[in-house]
Design brief:
Largest sheet: 2 strands, antiparallel
Order of helices and strands: HHHHEEHHHHHHH
Radius of gyration: 22 Å
Number of strands: 2
Number of domains: 2
Strand order of the largest sheet: 1-2
Number of helices: 11
Structural class: mainly alpha
Length: 264
């Protein structure tokens, strides 16, 4: 089997794949709000357990998920380090001119867990929901915004196209990076300025190719007389089952528990 790229839809017939896209979107939103408003470590660990359980039920495999998790390891490390150093508290040990505090370590670990939960939840949603289903679910949930003249269908189409090209952009960025390495560029230099300069050699051509791709998509949609009318047939194909309703109720209870813990 080919290597699964970050954000790529993974075809499957698991219980997570068969859930209604609206259920997965609502559960992700409730989970994300819950972990952002709560700092209790046991509450966050419970969500990590939920994400691991969801990964197990999805059939994607832990190896694939955690290989993708490695892509944000530097973000996790920098987040933890800045929190540990910059938050005032009782010094635990010294690193040069910096003091690592007890409160900084606690807050750093909390934010580390938050980032892991947000990342795993997003990846699980994207890898178990096809772009078409995701767009249909978003369009259905955002339908009330039509009442205030917000073009919901156009918004869902933009999000659908964006999700579709996430794996493509990542693959293209890797190809550009390999091309720069073959020309002598170094991305493991100890000097931050040199690394930033080298990574700009990836971002600039990636941005240029993204603009060209966006223009080609716009021309293709225009040539096919795309008008942007809501896709009623696509939205009417969505059906909530008893499993969907049970899962939404479960996440609502977890969310309310988190609110109570936050206020206590």
């Amino acid at each position: 089997m080919k290597e699964i790229k970050l954000g790529q839809y993974f075809y499957g017939n698991s219980i997570i794949h068969l859930l209604d896209p609206r259920t997965k979107i609502i559960c992700c939103i409730l989970a994300f709000i819950s972990v952002l408003i709560n700092q209790k470590w046991y509450y966050l660990l419970f969500f990590v357990f939920l994400m691991i359980t969801g990964t197990k039920c999805s059939g994607i495999g832990f190896k694939t998920i955690f290989q993708n998790l490695r892509s944000i390891r530097y973000l996790l490390l920098v987040t933890f380090a800045f929190q540990a150093i910059l938050i005032k508290g009782e010094p635990v040990w010294h690193i040069g001119i910096f003091n690592v505090t007890d409160k900084g370590l606690i807050l750093g670990m909390v934010n580390l867990l938050r980032l892991v939960i947000l990342y795993l939840g997003s990846i699980l949603l994207l890898m178990t929901t096809s772009p078409i289903q995701l767009a249909a679910g978003l369009e259905y949930l955002l339908l009330p915004l039509n009442g205030i003249n917000i073009p919901v269908h156009s918004l869902s189409t933009i999000l659908n196209i964006s999700f579709r090209f996430i794996p493509t952009l990542i693959e293209e960025a890797n190809n550009i990076k390999d091309a720069q390495i073959s020309r002598g560029a170094r991305f493991d230099c100890s000097k931050i300025i040199v690394n930033l300069k080298n990574y700009s050699a990836i971002l600039i051509p990636l941005l240029a190719s993204s603009l060209i791709r966006a223009e080609n998509i716009a021309e293709a949609m225009d040539s096919r007389c795309y008008t942007g009318h809501p896709n009623r047939a696509r939205m009417s194909s969505l059906h909530l089952t008893s499993i969907d309703i049970t899962l939404i109720c479960f996440m609502l209870i977890i969310f309310l528990v988190g609110v109570i813990l936050c206020l206590s």
